[in-house]
Amino acid sequence: MKLRVLLAMSLTLALLGCGGGGDGDNSPPSVSGTFSRTELAFNGGTVQITLTVSDPSGVESAQVDIFPRPSGFNPINLDPQNQKTFVSNLTISLPLNSGVLDVVYHVRVKARDSLGNEGTVIVGTVTVRSPLGTLPSLPNPAGAFPD
Hints:
Blueprint: H1 2-16, E1 30-35, E2 39-40, E3 45-67, E4 76-78, E5 83-94, E6 103-113, E7 118-128
């Protein structure tokens, strides 16, 4: 009976130490981004992004994605090699906007630390303007016609 109690207590203590954040780190890596520009003309273009991903336990992986995902874009996998702070410079290309409305692209980073804590953060947005946004506004006709 004593052996069963001892075994049960040992198993309980062992299981309490399992899972992400066993060293008191239960938070996903922190992620920030700096964009060379956040607005593009209707013909699209490129944007340079500097990403900083950090975690006291070390950053195991990071992936950059764009939503809505442009045609032909594949998520970019980064290799931080368990560094506590990882900086990456990358360039993204955004397509022509032939629509009536501006298109806002959200740049998301999914990062995981060496303890398994994972999170997804939107680090910024880039707007590709509509070609119709460059048209001048029509004058207000109020008062143009006498009664």
